[in-house]
Structures are given as C-alpha cells and as structure tokens.
Protein 1
Amino acid sequence: MLFTRPRGTQDVLPSDVESHLFLENAARRIFNLFGFFEMRAPIIESAALFARSLGSVTDVVEKQMFIIKKEDGDIALRPEGTAGVVRAYVENGLDKSFPSGKFFYIGPMFRGERPQKGRLRQFHHIGCESISGAMPAVDIEVILLLDMLMKEIGLGDYQLKINTIGCEQDKLNISKVLYEFLSGKRESLCDDCQRRLDKNVFRVLDCKKNSCKAIAKEAVNRINVCGRCKAHFDAVVAELDRAGINYIIDPLLVRGLDYYTRTVFELTHPNLSSGQDAIGAGGRYDNLVSEISGGKIDKGAVGFALGVERLLLCLNRAGEIKCPQVVVAYQDASLLHIVIDIARQVRAKGISCDYDLRHRSLKAQMRRAGKLGAKYVIIIGEQEASSGSFTLKEMSGSKQITGLSRENLLDKISLKS
Ligand code: HAM
C-alpha cells in the first residue's frame, strides 16, 4: 500500500454513511423538537480560543491539539465544539438575533490521542449548547433532550452520572482543599497524578487507577459547594426524578475541561469497555460567554456532546447501502441517447436509476445490475429501440415483461417502487 489513512482516522465508507445519517437525522429531529438551531462553525479556529476556553493545562490543549503554525497566530483543528459555538455566538451577535440561545452542531473533531478502539484522532460530535442563562431549567431541558435522543436512537439503557463542581469561587476553594489533602498523599499517587496535583488538581479525581481512586474518594469527602450551587443542583436532580430519568450522583465526576461550573454529567453505556465507555458528556459553563466576549455578554450556558463513533460501537448496526432501484441495460453504444432519456424520466419520478457507462455487453450489464442490487432492469435492444417497446426484468425472480410502451414501463416501475 503506497498510502494509508492517518492513524486514528476512519474512512466512513458508503455502508457506514447510512449509520451516521441515522444518528444525524434522529439528532436533527430531536433538536428541532426542542427549538435548537443548527450551526456550522469552522473546523479551524485560533488555537488561543481553545487555550482560553478549555484551559491551558488541560490534556486536550496541552497534548492533543493539532496545530497549524501561521505567522498571524496559530490555528488549531477544533478538538471540541463548545468554544467555537460560543465564539460564533459572540462574534455574530446571536444573543440579539437568536434570543433562545439554543444551538446544535454535528461534525468532525480532532484530538491527537493515542488511538485505540473508541478513541480516534478524527471523530464526530453531535452536540448542543443552550446559552440560555443561569436557571436550573436550562440544565434540565438539555438533559431531557439528551434522554429523548438516546431513546430515539435505541440506546435508552445508557447510564447518566451527574455531579456539581460549584461556581468559580467554589472551584478555587475546592482546589485548595484538594491540594492540601492530596499533597500529603503525594507518594501514594501515580506519576500522572503527581503531575496533575501541581497543574490541575481536579484531574486527580478523574484517575482510573484503583490506588488513586481510593485516595480521591477520601478527598471528595472533604469538599463542598456553596449553598446556592447546592440549591441549583438539588433543583436539577429533583426535576430528573420527576421526569423518571435514572442517574447516579458521582462525587468523583469533575470533567477534564476548565470551563465547567456547577452541573457536570457523563453518559456511559454497558456495551463499551470501561476505559472508553463515555458515549457523551457535558455540563454547565457560566463564565465562558463572558470571558470570550470580554465581559460584554454575561450568560450562563449548558451543553453536551455525544461521540458518534462510540454511539455506533454501542449500536452495532449492520451497514446498509442504498442501491439504485432501476438499471437500464442496452445492446450497444448507439442506443445511449434513448438510455439517457429513459433514465431521466425514471429519476424524474423520484426513483434511483443507473446504467453502465462503458457500453459493455448486455450480459456484463445484467451481471453488474445484480451486483448493484437493482430491483428492476429495463432492457433496450435494437428491436426494442426501433419498435419503441421495452422489456422490464424483475431481478428478484425471473419475471420479465416484454412489449411495454414507455408510459406503461414508467407506470409499472412507479407502482412497484
Ligand atoms: P468531551 O467529554 O471531551 O466533551 O467529549 C464528548 C464525547 O466525545 C466523549 O464522551 C466521547 O464520547 C467523545 N470523544 C471524545 N474524545 C474522543 C476521541 N478521541 N475519539 C472518539 N470519541 C471521542 C466535550 O467535547 C464538550 N465540548 C462537551 C460539551 C458541550 N460540554 C458543554 N457543551
């Protein structure tokens, strides 16, 4: 092989596209039901936007961004969608033109991670951002939407973990408490956590190693959020209870991006291995819009993103390709003008139609029609062409109708398709 795809990327082949479309269409349907508008921000953004939004000492910014060096500032392939949506919201004054502040996006994201099953360097997000304010109603609506979407795509058996990490002041207080406690246990933490301790102490709570988990559990017993953040969280989970949504409150859930405040959540699914079992995640970010707008717009927001490839691993859908319904087979190249005309008429009826462009033998064309999975073949020989009557072959059996006029031919196909 002279060239192969870059590590950690996938070719979404025709048989996989249908599965992507299945998810995308379901998502569009549900987002529309909740009054969200689709947005398509660029795939490249200034690298500084992500450093500012996600935090310069997060794994994503520190280690995983694909950077393109440019004289007028580094450009990054977007590792996630939130920062770009918020940037576009501020830059285009969407706070005025879209007062609901509810947007969704579907598209590729890029992270230079070590590839493995369910972890890619180019993957796709189905995500949304509800830049709608500080009320618990915003968190609740986003989670209700997520629940409806998961049920719609047949993954209603997902698990929702939820937690609150408090407001900016709480986060500062908590990081102090965590640092004091965890510094005393430094020697017992893994090498990664020893580094995290000094850079971003919250990340120690994320560690998957059992020894660190035990210490993290002790640590979270010492932290608390303020009364207002607690009341916010209580209001969110009370509504989830009323709506019959199952969740687990996980005090160790902190999320790896800096912009989160208050509510954070993660979705897992039993069909995925425990290392890469998050099929989606999200939360509230109350200060990002203000930060990106230089203090001009102060709006709290909540959003989530689902990893499309991980959803597909859970769903395990058999790939399906849409075959042309009708193939026109013809005896020789001199009949091409009739073929083109008939194909035009069939397509005008909304029926997919294909014909061989290489003028091969009728036998070869019939074989090709079989391989393509066509339902019908219209056969045009010299005789049919001169008499204006055609033959229609049904591929599933050996049924063949001869002597059909053009009108009858088109009616027959329309009726059966
Ligand atoms: P995130 O947790 O970084 O959140 O990504 C969301 C989901 O994307 C993950 O749960 C996972 O399913 C999928 N994902 C992440 N990295 C990879 C990868 N390398 N390969 C395959 N799938 C992956 C965010 O990106 C936030 N922007 C979510 C959000 C929106 N928060 C508020 N609004």
Note: The two ends are 42 Å apart (CA to CA).
Protein 2
Amino acid sequence: MAVLAIRFFGDPVLRERARPVEKFTDLHRRLVADMLDTMREAPGVGLAGPQVGVMDRIFVWEVEDEYGAVINPDIVEASQEMQTDEEGCLSIPGLVYPVERSLRCTIEGRDSDGLPLRIEAEGFKARVFQHETDHLNGVLFIDRLAPELRKEALRTLSGQALGLSVPQRGNAGSQDAL
Ligand code: ZN
C-alpha cells in the first residue's frame, strides 16, 4: 500500500500519450492497488496513470460502491445524447467547470489480471470513464470547456502559476475530482 505523488497542471507528463500495456505482471496489480490508495487519499473518484507519472494506459475509478481498474481502455460506444455536469480534476485542484460528455458509454479493456472487461456506464460513471480515457491521450477536462470558460480557467491557472493564489487540495468539489 502506497500513496503516489500526484502530478499537477503544468507538468508535461499530463500532455503525453500513454502506451498500451502489453504484459500483465504483479507490477500492474501493485500499481492498481497504489493508484486506488492515491485516489482515495486525495480524495477523488478517478485517477489515470499519467497523473502519477506512469505512462501506461491504465486508470482506476470509484463511483458509489463500485470501483475498479481499466487497462488499455477503449470507449467502443458513446451516446449521441449528451449531458453537461460539473467536473474537476485531481491534477487541477480547485477548478470545477461544467463539461459536456456523452450521457452513456461502453468501455472495453483489461482488468489488473489482464482479463478482458466490458462495462456499460451511464451518467457520472460514464463521465469518469471519458475523463480518465482522455488523460491517457494527454487531454484535460479544461480542453473540453466552452471557449469563454476555457479562457477563464486558463487565466485562473496562470494566476496560480504566478503565485496569486495557491491551489488547495480538498477544496469544495474535490470529492468529485478525477
Ligand atoms: Zn483528471
């Protein structure tokens, strides 16, 4: 059991594309356990490899009483029907903005033992899967904001970089951070 260091906005690893996992070993099982610990400690409801500096296509999630890991995730279906809801990110503490996502999606991949999995998700769980899969492609939720909100978010982030305000972990909304 270990809590890993979370990488924050501005760290170039968050903009890199993660690599597919080809061999499933005990290292991946341990990594999944550590990523779950890290996500719960933060606290958050999703965490992707690059957020802890691991460039493997892997994420963990926990929504209500369900949790798990998805390795080499592939969103094979996404509904045309969209839903806009507030979203945050453990790598961008303190920022919460409405993001439009598919209301439903189906994800395929592997579990931490390398066995195939397929999950049909709706609502917040579908949102988490889309957010985490984005992380593996170097995409952050602020990239998906409406243009005026994106400008505001970037202004806030550059203010933080200049030390005008310090990002605080555990702000309001962080329970839903991904
Ligand atoms: Zn995130």
Note: The pocket of zinc ion is lined by residues 89-91, 131, 135, 178 (CB under 6 Å).
Protein 3
Amino acid sequence: MTTLDIRANEPRFPTAKTLYGLFFEDINRSGDGGLYPEMLHNRAFDDGIIPDDLKVDGNFIVNANGYRIEYCGGEGTERWIRENNNGETTDIPGWYADGAKIHLDREDTLNTNREAALSVHFDFGGRIRNIGYAGVPAKVGEAYHLYFFAKTKTLVPLTISLSDENGIICGQEITVSGKDFIRYDTTLVATRTTGQACFVVTAPRGGQLSFGFFSLMPAVTYCGHGLRIDLAAKLEDLHPAFFRFPGGCIVEGLSDSTVMRFSETVGPVWERKGHINLWQYRMTNGLGYHEYLQLCEDLNAEALYVCNCGMTCQARECILLEGEALNASLEEALSALEYAIGPADSHWGALRARMGHPAPFNLNYLEIGNENHGEAYEKRYEMFRNAILDRYPHLKIIANTHVERSGLQLDVADEHFYNRTEWFSSNTHHYDSYDRQGPDIFVGEFAVVTGPTRTQYPAVGEAMFMIGLERNQDIVKLAAYAPLFENVHYCVWSPNLIAFDNLRCYALPSYYVWRMFSQNRGTDVLPCDQSSGEIYPPYLKGGPALMGSNGLTFRNAVWNGENVYATHELLGHVEAVADGFRIMPAEESQKHPRMHLSPNDDRTFIVLGEDESTRTGVFEIEVLAEEGRTISVGICCSPMTEEGSKERWTVHNLRPVNWTLRNGKSTIIEGWGMFSTVLAEECPAELSAGVYHSLKMLSDGGTVSCYLDGILLQTAELPHYEMLQSVALADGEDLIVKVAHIGSEPETVEIRLDCEVESEYTVQLLANEPTARNTLEQQEQVCDQLLLHQGAAKTFVYQAPPYSVSVLRLRKC
Ligand code: AHR
C-alpha cells in the first residue's frame, strides 16, 4: 500500500505559471506538408540543389569537417524515394513529366533569392505532375488556394487539376501569357476525398513556359494564419504557456548554409530562401519566424526564441564562426529581436508591420544556442548576452549549460533528457537537491527514446518524472516534450508527440499526460509525504553475455549449472579455438550508426543461452587474461522490448549488468554504451596475463556479487525505484492530487488530508495495458477519461490501476 500525507493548509510555494510549454523543430518534415500545409513538394524547384559549402558523396552530403548526412538528389533520403515514387525517378524532386520535358533554369529565376525556375516544354496534351508530400490531399467540399508565377513568349492555355487513379477531383483552366513572370491565382474545390492525389498541369495545345514558384494550400487555416487546423488544434488543447522554436539542432546546422537564419524566413514566401536542414531535407521556410510568432499569439503562449550563437552543431563536427562571420551571427540575433519586439518604424519592425502585425509580439525569452557547451560556447554566450541585454534588458536569457559554474550570468539553464522509461521513473527526485539560489531550470527537451516507446508504459514513466518537476517548480519553471511532430512518411526521429499523414493525425499516450497535467495546474504546491513500495526495472532479468574486447578467449561458460554457448552475436562473432572459444571482431554490418563507434573501438557483445526469465542466477566462466584486453561479463540480458518487436536483439535494446576488468581495475555497470550507469565504483583487480581466471557473477535478485578466482571482489545493489509518484496542489477550493503508478498490479493509495473534503470527486484517468498505443487507424485507443468517484474523506483510499496516471480533483468543505 502507498500512503500520501497531504497538508492542504501549508502551501510550499506557488506553481510556475509557465511550466508546460511546447518545443517545435522542423524535423520529420513537420513543417512543409505538415503544420505548414503546403501541398506541393519542392514548390520552388530547389530541393535537389546542394549549397557550395557541402560536398556531395553519393547519397550523402558532407560538411567541411567531414560530417555526413544522407540526402539524395530525389525526395529526401534513399528510403523515402522508394516509398513515395513507385520506382519512378526524377532529377527535380517532387516533379514528373509525361509528354513534356522539364529542366531547371538556374539563370532566369523569379527573384534573386530563387535559385531555379522550372522550364517546361509541353508536347500537345503533355503534362507535369507534382506528387506532394507522399501524395496531395483533398477533402470533399474543401477549397484550396493555388497560385503560381509563370512566363512565356507565346500564349499557353493550361488545365490545372488534382487527380488520382479514379480521375479528376477538381480542376481549373488558366491561360499563361506575358514574357515577364506574372502571378496567377485560382481556387480548386475538391469533389472527393483522398490523401493520394497528384497536382497536374496539362497543356492541351502544348507550349513552352517557365514557372517561377507554385503554392497550393487549404483556403481555411488555423486562425486564418496559414497553419493546418487539426495539428494546431492538438497544440491548442495542451494549453501551452510558452513555445520554443525553431530548434533544436536545426538552429545550429552543420555548415554555414544549413544554419537556420530568421532573416531568410520572413517576407513574402516566394522571396524567402529555402535551406537544407540537418534532418536531411530542404525547408521552404514558409513556416518562418513571423508564422511562429503569430502561432504563439494565437495559442496565447509566450514566445521563446532560440538563436544560433556562431557555431554549428557540436555533435556533428562543429564549425566555429569567428571574426566577421561571428559578428554577423550576433547581428542576426539582434535583428530577430527587432523583428519581434522592435518598434514598427525600425528596419525589421517595419517588415513585421508590412506582414500584418504592427504591434510588437510578446517575446520575453531568448535562448543562446542549442545544446552548445564548453569554452567556445561560453565565449560566444557572453558576447551575445551582453549585446542583447544592452538593447533588450527585459529579456530572460537562457543558456544551454550551467554557465554560472564558470562565473557567467544567466536567468535560466536548459537541460535535455533522452533516455529509457526506467530512467525517468527513477529520476523523479532529480531536482530535489538543486541549489535554490541557482538559475531557474528549463527542461527544454525530454522523452523516452529507448526501450519500449510510443506506448502507455513510457508515458507513465514520463509522468513520474513530470511529477518530480511539479514538486520542484520553485526552480523548474519551464518544460517541453521533444520532438513535437512527425509526418509518418518521413520519420527520421521517433517518438514524437503527434503523428500525422495528409488527412489524419493522432497523439501518443505521452500527449494525454501533458494534456492532463497542463489542464490541472493549480495555484500552490502542497506538502505531500509519500511512502510507497519499490520495483526493479522489468528489463533486469535474463541470462549472461560477454562484452569485452575482441580477441577475448574463454571456456566453460555456465549459467545456473548448465553450459551455455553464443546465441546472439550482436557485435563480433565467436569461434572455437583449441581449448575454448575466442571472440572475433565485429563486422561493419553489425555496427549501427547509433552506436557511435570509433574506428578503433574493439568492444563486442555476445549473448550466451536463451534465458530471459529471471533476475537471480549464477554465471561462471573462465577467461584468459591478456595484456591490454578488457574483460567484461554480464547478466540480465533480456531485450527491453516485447517479443516480435523490431530490432529486438540489438545492443540498444539490452541493458545488462556487467562486470568489467580493465587495466587492473574492476567496476560494475548497468547498460552498455551511451546510456550506462555505474553501480559500483572502481576497485583494484589484479589479473595475470596468459592465465585463465575464473569469474563468477551471482545475483540474488537484490544485489549482484562478483568473485574473481573464488574471492569476492565487489558487490552492487541492483537498480530499483518507487513504483508510484505523487504531487498535491491547491486550486482555490479544490485539491489536486496527481498520481503516476508504473507497477503491474493495482495499488491501494491511502490519502490522508488535514482538512475535510466532499465525498464526490473526479478522476482524470489514463490507464491501459503497458503496450497500448494509438495509430492513424485507432487514434484514441489511449486517451484519458473523466470519471466521477464517491467516498473521499479526510482519510480515504484510491485504487491506482496498473500502469496508470490519475489526476484527482477533490473539493474542500
Ligand atoms: O529533439 C530532437 C533533437 O534532440 C533536437 O534537435 C536537439 O536539440 C536534441 O539533440
């Protein structure tokens, strides 16, 4: 049983009004063809044009320091071209010709920011087609606004339509004439619904012309400001207090040309430069700075702008800007601020006014850089901060790291967490010990990204972590999930809070936690003393493994008294040798890019046997000690995801407890690679080269003990954590109690109050099987319900269902 002692009359501190917000980054094609519902792909014909500061190497583009991203000349990456085009290829992404010849004109373009025009020679009845973003959508009865710029030396009648395999859905006729680019506008009204139409331009009498730019968008958009209604409504439902944009890594870029610059995203869309982002595609920048600021206003959220600080992404072979280039970056940040909050008669404020918003926007937060760190960052941070505060002293400055530890000033520190469910469930006290005199904290990006994702189970883990944030909202003032959107046809990063295709969208279980929590903010945080049972991470079970260097020689591997042999060679291979076995190096095909292995990395990962069942057991093995060779043996090697899931037996999906002997030292670690945790600090361990040593790992379910040649060397506690987390809030005459329970059985929660409450109370409940998920077909399989309960009293019992998140609302009397 869990007990909660809540003192309703002793508020600890007020809730942070800004706590729950949003982070938008254009990733997974969430902008064009998504939140910004442009229906034509490559409307400015520049998708296949690679900027001069990137080299092309097959399907990759490479920055000056050698960092590579996949980007084929077609429609994004290789993967996407196959999915979208049924084998058809084109040199001009998105565009195809039947009975017509198309080529890019790089000279005679619509304006100086346009890099190409589409030159078309139509035969009689010839046509060009645009395939949209995995199809052009149409909804019966809905109107779509088309405009394009074209020029011709003659007079060319065109028929413009949306059509699919069942014929024409809507169409219009337009005759193009005039030797200079002229804009043509029309409206198409769909007679059928489909997500899979094509946009077709036919010339019944043939002709030669040049198109400077196209755009096709729904006529009705969110608040009339150009964004897709169903997606924006999903954001509105979260009641975001702030909106962080435009990234994320895309702010940093991987070269000068791929940095996101506000100045290239404002003004008429046909005059905006596009740019390639580091998520492998070109953005039109139609969803630009003005549109973000307008969306913040429409959502009633505070704008939180992130500027590049004169360096590209540090995780991608960083390029540092210096001198004039660095000054230009600073100028860019200052200009962005002038655009948002400068007077309407300033240079950039005047453009804002011309774009329809003479009054300044509400922007009070500026983040300098994204995920930047170290000396190079701190130098730039200081330079930017000083110059920015000089002009805009009211701004709250957000730093990417705790720069106060280097003696610099900041208002807010941004911290990001991507990890597994159990990390979030067990780190609910992360902020309890933070310095109350330090900066405010912005948990700017977090999500479960490893182990089971997209389901109820990670949503409950995140809820437990968020309860920890709520208990610390005297310093944790802002938080956001990341990333926000994915187009299901262009997903490079999963999970994301909201998924969509051309016609539909659904939210992940995590979304409903955010919605429940942001709808129930309360006014004050109350003392809530909790006592609850503990659990072990569900993945902490299973048989043994070897993870030492390649070349490691071993014999007589025994698990619980039975001989075991290599069953899953995740990294490296096992070969029989004279008196035992040797681990041979991994093949390239075994190395997943996410492992981040350097060329000299000699680690291996071999699972022995098939046991996936138990947390207790004994693993014995004899291992040959050799100079410089790391010996690492492990237990608890069961995959974190369920039977049948993709990539089950991979190094990312296992989190063994491993005992490592290296350079005369011994240590016990949980996990492998990026997300590992030390369970027992290093202690001395002498091995004799050329000698077989006997190693024994024994788990009694609560601790693991490691014996070297029969002598106990080290013991570590296995990770475990509270299975339930809670926070209590006051809200006028109401008391709000949020409870997240990750155990597999219902949990009895005894709630003890210091005041009387009415018997009737409401529960907003998100309870499901741990594997439950939403899909495009079943969009609200996982969704919170509002229930009416009876029986609340000064002391009463609430049954928290397994894997559930509950928000109880009690009325004082
Ligand atoms: O949210 C996806 C990426 O994760 C962001 O671009 C970056 O800030 C982080 O590394």
Note: The mean pLDDT is 95.
Protein 4
Amino acid sequence: MKLLLAALTITGASGSDTFRDTLTTLGDKTTTKYVGAAVNEGWFSDASYSGTASDYYNLVTAENSCKFSAIQHTQGSFDFSSCDQVQKFAEDNSMAFRGHNTCWGVNNPSWLDNGNFTSPELVDILENHVTTVLKYYKGKAVAWDVVNEAISDAAPYDLKLNTWNNITADEVNTNYVDVAFRAARQADPDAKLFYNDYNVASSQGWSQGKSDAMYNMVKSMLDRGVPIDGVGLQMHVGTGYDLVDGVKANMERYGDLGLEVHITELDLVCSQKNGYDCVWSDDMEKQQGELYATLLQACLDTEACTNFETWGFTDAHSWLEDGTHPLPFDENYDQKKAVGSMLDTLAGY
Ligand code: XIL
C-alpha cells in the first residue's frame, strides 16, 4: 500500500511530465541528450526507487558496482555480476548506461593497494583491467570514466599520490593516465572515453586552479595523441554555489577542443553561502531548486554539454550525510522544488 501511494504521489504531483520525456520533446533544440542519475542496484527491489529512476531519467551510472574493487575483487578474476545489474536495468528501461570507472586511487581492492607492485607490473594490471572491462561492455556503454580523480587539490596540481602513480614516467614515457586511455581506445574503439574529477567545474573562483590544471592536462593529452573524448565535471557542491558563469565558460573551452562535457555527479548539499551549517527551510529548498534549474539551463545552452547527471536522485539514498538534503527527490520519493524547476527549465527551453 505504501509503495502504491508513493507511486501515485509521483505521478499525481507531476502529471505525465518527467525529465526524460520532456527532454525527448526538445529533440534537436539542444545537444543535451541525457538527464541521468547514479543508482545502486541494492535498492532496485524497492518499486519507488526503481520506478522513479526509470520514469524520470534516461541514463544511469552505477554508484559503486562497476569500480575496480567490485569487478576485480580477486586478482585476475573478473566478476561483472553487480555491474551487470545496473547495465541491465538501463537496457530494460531504455536508458543509457554510463561506465564508472576503470582507474581511480579509491575503491580499490586491498590486493592492489597493498601489493607493492613494480611499475611494469602495475602497467600490466591496469591495461588488463581496462581492456577486459571495456571489451566486456563493448557497445553497451555510452561513455566510460577511464580515469577518475587523478589530479591533486593544491598547486602545482600534480597527479595524486596513489597506487597507480607508482607507474613511473620512465616506464611508460608518459604517465598512468595515458596508459589507461590508450588501453581503453584499443579495447573498444567506439567507446567514448572520459576523464572525470571534482572541484573542476568552473574556470572561475576557488576552483580555477584545479580547473585550469585539468584543462591543461586534457589539452596536453590531445596534443600528444592520447585518445580522449570528453570530460566529466562531478559537481559535488552546495546550495550556495555561485560560479555558474565559470561553469559555462569552462564547458565551452572543452567544446572548443572538440570534447564533450558531462556533468556527472551533481548534488547540492544544504549550505549557507560560505559554510555548511544547513538550516533546511522552504527558502533553502527553493534556492536549491533554482540552482538545479540554472545549472541544467547552462548545460542545455552549451553545445558541448551532453549529459546532466546527479549522484543519486533521492535523499533517501545519498552518499552524503543525512540531513543535507542534496538531491531532487526527498526521502519519501516525493518531488522537491528542484523537480518542478528542472521540468520548467526543460519545458520552457
Ligand atoms: C562514492 C559512493 O557514492 C559511495 O557509496 C562510496 O562509498 C564511495 O564512492 N566521486 C566519485 C564517486 O567519483 O565514485 C564517489 O562515489 C563519490 C565521489
């Protein structure tokens, strides 16, 4: 009964409008093809969860189950069962599936992080993982985050120290980022290959330094013939985020390089302008809704921006702390003001 009521609330409140349907009606008016969300297969059995995801969104990413630790928990043995559940959910609901990710310093199995592997051994491990995963999902993923979060948070924004960074320049004559992208292109020449990171969305304000570093890294990859098709701007930010103009400018400069941009992991924690002392209120919910809409508008307006995606979709299941209300649907799968604002933005485009 509870599930039925929840389902009725969703349809009742929104009429037949959903992000995916409204985006479809826009057709060629925008190059933005997807409004997406990260999902976790652990909640698919909850009809409110899977129903909201499949009704509203036309792209999903696995929150965790396609990461290195999920797929190659044991060295040399590949387990796609959890990642497959998300890919099949996408297929069954005519949604696109976005792969996340094949190379990161986090969410790695202990055999990898504690293995004390030599540089040539790590090159083999990386190439084998990237190749096996990309080949397995050949033709089934619209994009892969080949490398995630490689850049340090402070000047000079070198590559972060992690397991993969033990691959030395001498060994590969470049670095592990290049190794991963080259392996990915070889494994599936048709897959769109993305570099994905956080605090890199705006080329202005506090994120300018890391944003410029990422832009320079990606440009250098292109200059050196390393295959890359797009960049993911995560955007774990807050309701007080005020660098939207810089986000547009940043997306445009990637477009000028011939790259696609995906907003990949957007969530807006309840925050006061310069801090995180959240006081959730109608006003705050409105502010959040308006910001979601403004960012969506920026994506729709920017030719390079083809995917607008949040990290989860319901406050019931967010990686962020309880009480931060970061996502468009509330804990009960009811629409927050963000849903209406985003639908208005799409419908009015
Ligand atoms: C997070 C998941 O949401 C959590 O469940 C997990 O414990 C850690 O990873 N940047 C990324 C995502 O690229 O993979 C992260 O996902 C959030 C930050």
Note: Residues 315 and 325 are 6 Å apart (CA to CA).
